[in-house]
Amino acid sequence: MIHRLADCMNPNVPESTNVWQFCVVLPNCRIGEHCNICANVLIENDVVIGNYVTIKCGVQIWDGIELEDHVMVGANVSFTNDLYPRSHNKNWTLMRTKVCKGASIGAGSVILPGLTIGEGAMVGAGSVVTKDIPAGEIWVGNPARFYRKIDE
Length: 152
What we know:
mainly beta, 8-stranded mixed sheet, 5-stranded parallel sheet, 20 strands
């Protein structure tokens, strides 16, 4: 389902995926089955989104971001893809970020570029992630720090 008020330029969004109002989806991204892309989400071209992914309202998925299957991205999460952003810089370096299968990112978190959030990991709401997060761990705070293993 693509809401009539979404600007979805990608003809390959599966029917099982919902794209809600005021979203902008550029034509060359890849989006999997059974995703829920909530209102006011922007998805650029060089993006891969797996199956069963939820992206809550107010998130921008910039070039170089990959969300594997069953990832949850909370409202107003900020991804970045440039470590040293400058206006009109034509020589910037794209840094790729990967959020692995089953990971969850809490609302309002900031994810710096070039990082990997491991399988099943969780990021607490409002955290600023400056390092890779290993699989199966919960990280919280600014900067985000290890809190505990998920099975503890």
